């Protein structure tokens, strides 16, 4: 269960895009809020003004979260949401990570850009350092988040979990389970995605018209395009069986779960991020939950690859889990 959410702020309107989303998230999940502003040594003289700003924002987002909580619960007999405000001097990424570790934080909510745009809060800077080192999940939201996502207005509340068959990728599953339960298992559906890929298949010798399988006794030669079609069907079946196994375990835990094996127009050249983004765009999704690493380690599912493309190319919030 998520109990305390850290929201780093830099004073910009773009960073404050998280406020609207934070109050809805905190109100519906009953999460306490910790607002943190980090200023440099050169800005130490501005600490009183910064502190006043953060404290004011903490009061506002707390009151708004309580309104959401009372409305969602249908009564006022709920634990009041608390909001803290802190201002410190230092390097933003280091202070964010320090607070997350020392202040019993179990979720960090970040805007993907902030005061100086790409140079300050982009994935290559503060947010990137936090993603690489945080010991807790990091939830990234972008400016222009659809109001249906912010205000939880989709007919079906959906959490999409992309998987690649590895144990590393599966580390995202407990977090999707926790959010679904905290939100209300009856109102949330977990969607397990698997991309059917043939990118590891090798092409035959250009002068060869047939592919001779390494089987004994030898069978009839098979055309390459026929072999590709057969291999695609085999992998689709294996991927579906894999997802069904995980889905049964989640359903046994009382969670609504469905599965989807995605096959691109060109399986030999498929891009997992493109397929995931296309699915999320065509199927209303509240949240994507995924690991920062997968089957091939850093090269395959790191946020410098598939996860980063999803964060940059989609409007859906992305919860990233760094496997320990």
How would you summarize the topology of this molecule?
Layout: E1 4-9, H1 17-29, E2 32-39, H2 47-73, E3 83-89, H3 92-102, E4 107-111, H4 118-121, H5 126-133, E5 138-141, H6 147-150, E6 157-163, H7 167-170, H8 173-183, E7 188-195, E8 210-211, E9 222-223, H9 224-252, E10 256-262, H10 272-282, E11 287-291, H11 298-301, H12 306-313, E12 318-321
Parallel strand pairs: 1-2, 1-4, 2-3, 4-5, 6-7, 6-11, 7-10, 11-12
Antiparallel strand pairs: 5-12, 8-9
Helix pairs in contact: 1-2, 3-5, 10-12
Could you describe the 3D structure shown?
This protein is an alpha/beta fold. The protein contains 12 helices and 12 strands. A 10-stranded mixed beta sheet has the order 3-2-1-4-5-12-11-6-7-10, sandwiched between helices. α2 (47-73) links the parallel β2 and β3. α3 runs parallel beside α5.
Q: Which key features would you list for this structure?
A:
about 325 residues; alpha/beta; ten-stranded mixed β-sheet; two-stranded antiparallel ribbon; 12 helices; 12 strands; about 40% helix; globular
The averaged pLDDT comes out at 83
The largest sheet has its strands arranged as 3-2-1-4-5-12-11-6-7-10
N→C terminal distance: 18 Å
Broad shape: globular
Beta content comes to 15-25%
Largest beta-sheet characterization: 10 strands, mixed
- Determine the structural class based on helices, strands and strand pairing: alpha/beta
The string of secondary-structure elements, in order, is EHEHEHEHHEHEHHEEEHEHEHHE
């Amino acid at each position: 269960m998520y109990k305390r959410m850290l929201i780093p702020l830099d004073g910009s309107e773009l960073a404050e895009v998280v406020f609207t989303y934070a109050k809805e998230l905190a109100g519906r999940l009953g999460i306490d809020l910790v607002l943190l502003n980090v200023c440099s040594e050169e800005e130490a003289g501005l600490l009183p003004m910064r502190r006043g700003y953060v404290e004011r924002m903490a009061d506002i987002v707390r009151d708004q979260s309580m309104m959401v909580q009372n409305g969602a619960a249908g009564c006022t007999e709920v634990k009041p949401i608390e909001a803290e405000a802190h201002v410190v001097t230092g390097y933003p990424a280091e202070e964010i990570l320090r607070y997350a570790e020392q202040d019993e934080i179990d979720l960090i909510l970040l805007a993907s850009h902030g005061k100086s745009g790409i140079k300050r809060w982009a994935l290559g800077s503060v947010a990137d350092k936090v993603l690489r080192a945080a010991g807790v999940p990091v939830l990234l939201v972008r400016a222009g988040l659809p109001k249906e996502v912010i205000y939880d207005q989709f007919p079906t509340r959906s959490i999409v979990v992309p998987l690649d068959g590895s144990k590393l990728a599966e580390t995202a599953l407990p977090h999707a389970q926790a959010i679904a339960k905290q939100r209300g298992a009856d109102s949330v559906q977990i969607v397990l995605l698997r991309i059917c890929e043939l990118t590891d298949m090798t092409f035959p010798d250009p002068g060869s018209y047939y592919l001779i399988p390494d089987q004994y006794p030898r069978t009839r030669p098979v055309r390459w395009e026929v072999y590709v079609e057969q291999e695609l069907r085999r992998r689709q079946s294996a991927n579906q069986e894999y997802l069904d196994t995980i889905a049964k375990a989640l359903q046994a835990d009382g969670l609504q779960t469905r599965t989807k094996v995605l096959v691109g127009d060109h399986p030999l050249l498929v891009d997992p991020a493109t397929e995931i983004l296309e699915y999320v765009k065509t199927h209303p999704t509240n949240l994507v939950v995924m690991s920062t690493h997968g089957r091939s380690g850093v090269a395959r599912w790191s946020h410098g690859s598939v996860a980063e493309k999803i964060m940059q190319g989609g409007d859906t919030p992305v919860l990233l889990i760094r496997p320990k």
